[in-house]
Fold this sequence. Notes:
Elements: E1 2-9, E2 22-29, E3 36-45, H1 50-53, E4 74-81, E5 91-94, E6 101-105, E7 110-111, H2 128-140, E8 148-151, H3 157-168, E9 172-177, H4 180-188, E10 193-196, H5 203-210, E11 215-220, H6 224-233, E12 234-242, H7 263-266, E13 270-273, H8 283-295, E14 303-307, H9 312-318, E15 327-331
Parallel strand pairs: 8-9, 8-11, 9-10, 11-12, 12-13, 14-15
Antiparallel strand pairs: 1-2, 3-4, 3-6, 3-15, 4-5, 5-7
Amino acid sequence: MAEVREVRLKSRPVGMPTHENFEIASVTLRDPGPGEVQVKDLWMTVDPYMRGRMNDVKSYAPPYALGEAMHGGAVGQVTASNDPGFQAGDLVLSQLGWREGFTAPAAGLQKLDSRGLPPQAFLGVAGMPGLTAYAGLLRVAALKADDVVFVSGAAGAVGSVVCQIAKAKGHRVIGSAGGAEKAEFLRSIGVDHVIDYKAEKDLNAALAAGAPEGIDVYFDNVGGAHLEAALNSARLFARFAICGMISIYNATEPPPGPRNLAQLIGKNIRMEGFIVSHHFDLMPKYIEDLSGWVRAGKVTWKETVFEGIEKAPDAFLGLFTGENLGKMLVKLG
Length: 333
């Protein structure tokens, strides 16, 4: 048996979460029974959607239970197996992050073929965030020839992949992110017009400067003022893929809605929210396309890494203060 640490939800946050909402506990793992494996987690992800699961409300994903370990995507290595399909040393993808290890049924794990990628890439560019970008841009927003694309949260795990897919397909891309370092990263991956929203006094003017004839596709990770600006710059028959609205995740009361929603009518804009779990059928095609783009040097990625399970809350809170460039990850000891 092995002793590991896990992060539990101690209390439900009101507004921005704090360290007081988390606690770290030690548990002893039992040996795997028939059909089970024991896994040492190597990497875990923290993602903005997890904030919603800290609330006791009905949503597309069940809320985290108080006093129990949180969970999310993780890549680990099998240390003991009592299932014929797995052996010690296998790399696996699970939804049992926020802990250093676990014993669980093998049926709930996905054995990984590294395809030459580092293991943690399956939590980012080759995992859920990458597929979110691919499905949102190509299926939901239905990218087509000559579209001008605007991406908010463009330096994040999802947004940066959206930008690069659009560039790989030959489109003009406007990307918005906060801070000089993120702006420089966007330029390095070929974004045509970069908006540092922290340095801009007028987001509408900044977007209009990058797309003087308007935008055809908006990939929304932020909501709020970015959504308003996108509506103002939208061309006739624009398509909006609404992936996230991180600007309001910690609001304690409903924020004001966009003041210019009436533009949806006159401009014939289609605005559609989506959850990546409804698009998992695209994963094989995405990995095929991604492999080609990586080989051609058209897609790269950044990671912001915190080390140690005790740093998982810091990494999570950093998502809401803009500390991540690319994918936010926790490397486990």
